């Protein structure tokens, strides 16, 4: 809702002349107020536009999920692909989904539920294919020794 470095809030100010004030977690807020924002502007119609935009964003975010997929780091290269091609292709196909590979052997997938589930399925398939390739390679390698 806030955007990277407050980009969305700044856009509301620039486009609609409406200030969006979001209480920080450090602020002491009254009970139940932490989920509220304050809209300040001189024109009611502009405030309503910003309110509707924020409401739509909140509704969309309610459908967001985070999937933590355990993947050994040795398979991260398969997910990334040559020069990042595989992960780029997935990211372009599912633009609203964030994919992050961590040092803790996790692939963190965040986005709208249906898209996040589809990305999870694709990544599982990539990892399974990489595992199968490793097994075939070992078998072929052993067969050529005889």
Characterise the protein shown here.
The structure is a single chain. A hairpin with a 4-residue loop joins strand 4 (98-101) and strand 5. The protein has two domains: 4-62, no CATH class; 64-144, K Homology domain, type 1 (Ribosomal Protein S8, Chain: A, domain 1), CATH 3.30.1370. The radius of gyration is 22 Å and the shape is elongated. It starts with 6 loop residues before the first helix and ends with a helix. By secondary structure, the protein is of the alpha+beta class. The strands form two sheets. Strands 3-5-4 form a three-stranded antiparallel sheet. Strands 1-2 form a two-stranded antiparallel ribbon. It has helices at 7-16, 44-62, 76-80, 85-93, 113-144, and strands spanning 18-21, 38-41, 64-70, 98-101, 106-112. Helix content is 51%, strand content 18%.
Describe the SSE topology:
Blueprint: H1 7-16, E1 18-21, E2 38-41, H2 44-62, E3 64-70, H3 76-80, H4 85-93, E4 98-101, E5 106-112, H5 113-144
Summarize the structure.
This protein is of the alpha+beta class. The protein has helices at 7-16, 44-62, 76-80, 85-93, 113-144; strands at 18-21, 38-41, 64-70, 98-101, 106-112.
CATH H-tier superfamily of the largest domain: K Homology domain, type 1
Q: Would you tell me which CATH topology of the largest domain applies?
A: Ribosomal Protein S8, Chain: A, domain 1
**Main pleated sheet:** 3 strands, antiparallel
Helix proportion range: 40-55%
Number of strands: 5
Name of the CATH first level of the largest domain: Alpha Beta
Mean pLDDT: 85
Number of helices: 5
Strand order of the largest sheet: 3-5-4
Low-confidence stretches: none
Number of domains: 2
What distance separates the N and C termini? Answer: 63 Å
What fraction of the residues are assigned to beta strands by DSSP? Answer: 15-25%
Task: Provide the CATH architecture of the largest domain.
Answer: 2-Layer Sandwich
Q: C-alpha Rg, in Å?
A: 22 Å
Overall shape: it is elongated
* SSE order, one letter for each helix or strand: HEEHEHHEEH
What structural category do the secondary elements indicate? alpha+beta
């Amino acid at each position: 809702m806030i955007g990277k470095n407050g980009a969305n809030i700044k856009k509301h100010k620039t486009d609609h002349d409406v200030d969006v004030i979001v209480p920080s977690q450090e602020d002491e807020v009254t009970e139940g107020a932490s989920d509220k924002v304050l809209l300040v502007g001189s024109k009611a119609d502009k405030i309503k536009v910003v309110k509707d935009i924020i409401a739509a964003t909140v509704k969309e975010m309610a459908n967001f999920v985070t999937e933590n997929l355990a993947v050994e780091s040795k398979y991260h290269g398969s997910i990334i692909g040559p020069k990042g091609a595989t992960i780029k292709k997935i990211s372009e196909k599912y633009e609203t989904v964030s994919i992050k590979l961590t040092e803790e052997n996790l692939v963190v997938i965040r986005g709208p539920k249906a898209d996040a589930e589809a990305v999870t399925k694709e990544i599982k398939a990539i990892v399974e294919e990489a595992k199968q390739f490793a097994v075939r390679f070992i078998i072929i390698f052993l067969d050529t020794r005889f």
